[in-house]
TrEMBL record:
InterPro entries: CFAP91 (IPR026720), CFAP91_dom (IPR032840). This is Cilia- and flagella-associated protein 91. It comes from the Eukaryota. It comes from Cariama cristata. Residues 4-156 form the CFAP91 domain. Pfam families: CFAP91 (PF14738). Its main location: cytoplasm. Coiled coil: none annotated. Keywords: Cell projection, Cytoplasm, Cytoskeleton. GO terms for cellular component: axoneme.
Length: 261
């Protein structure tokens, strides 16, 4: 019924596979001892390359068993020739391994170069997009300024056309007050009028709302029915008649309640 919680996970407390002590009988060489260089994480568990290495070692041991004895000169020459052939095969195998390793490294280098080129292209694209955005923003600001200057010059030309002769005209107050689009009703900010100025004069300032004493006085002037709410509980409807019978509506309500349950 009890349990314990350790400070470490199973993965952190996991050790390498256990290798017990062993004793080799004299005169015997177990094949398993040829794999003593392989350890957990370095060759174990064995993959395709390790299996090929084990098979090659077996073939080499079988070849060594077929070597002739060194008892006469003819056997020595034959043994030397066989050893030269095996050495050539080992060098050829080593060259193939070097070529495979170079191909793997070349593939890795290609991937790294391709990834660097992609990152550089993305960076260049982002820089071009930022430059394009800056130029677009500058263009829009320039177009906006040109449109503003154009509107200003058009207003000046319209004003000059209305008074080509340059005569001084008196102010027509009746015309200004009859036209609701005139400067009297709708003045423009470009001629010095800002409608938001002195807007605080329209703010309602009330003694009863802005001060604590005013709030107390306002509360005292209100009737008690406003501050103290009274709720009357509803009276239950009678389900029986004067003669003592239960009404049909009451029976239906009981049946509906049972069905709902």
């Amino acid at each position: 019924t009890l349990g314990t919680q350790t400070d470490y996970r199973d993965g952190e407390a996991q050790t390498d596979p256990y290798s017990p002590e062993y004793v080799v009988p004299s005169g015997s060489v177990p094949e398993l001892l040829t794999l003593a260089t392989l350890t957990w994480g370095r060759g174990l568990p064995a993959g395709l390359a390790e299996v090929e290495m084990i098979e090659r070692a077996r073939e080499k041991r079988a070849w060594e068993a077929t070597l002739p004895a060194m008892d006469n000169a003819s056997q020595i020459a034959k043994r030397r020739k066989m050893m030269d052939d095996m050495e050539r095969k080992e060098w050829a195998f080593r060259e193939q391994e070097i070529e495979k390793l170079q191909e793997v490294r070349l593939e890795v280098l290609k991937k790294l170069l391709w990834r660097r080129e992609e990152n550089q292209n993305e960076l260049d694209t982002k820089r071009l997009y930022d430059h394009w955005q800056n130029y677009q923003k500058a263009k829009e600001e320039k177009i906006k300024k040109i449109q503003h200057d154009c509107a200003l010059m058009l207003r000046k030309l319209i004003a000059k056309r209305n008074n080509v002769m340059g005569k001084l005209e008196r102010r027509d107050i009746i015309k200004e007050y009859t036209d609701f689009a005139s400067q009297t009703y709708a003045p423009l900010s470009r001629i010095g009028y800002f409608p938001d100025n002195h807007s605080e004069c329209y703010v309602v300032k009330n003694f009863y709302l802005n001060t604590f004493a005013g709030l107390c006085e306002l509360e005292a002037s209100l009737p008690s029915s406003v501050t103290q709410v009274k709720i009357k509980a509803p009276k239950p409807k009678y389900t029986t008649t004067k003669t003592g019978f239960i009404k049909r509506s009451a029976r239906l309500e009981v049946e509906l309640a049972q069905v709902h349950q």
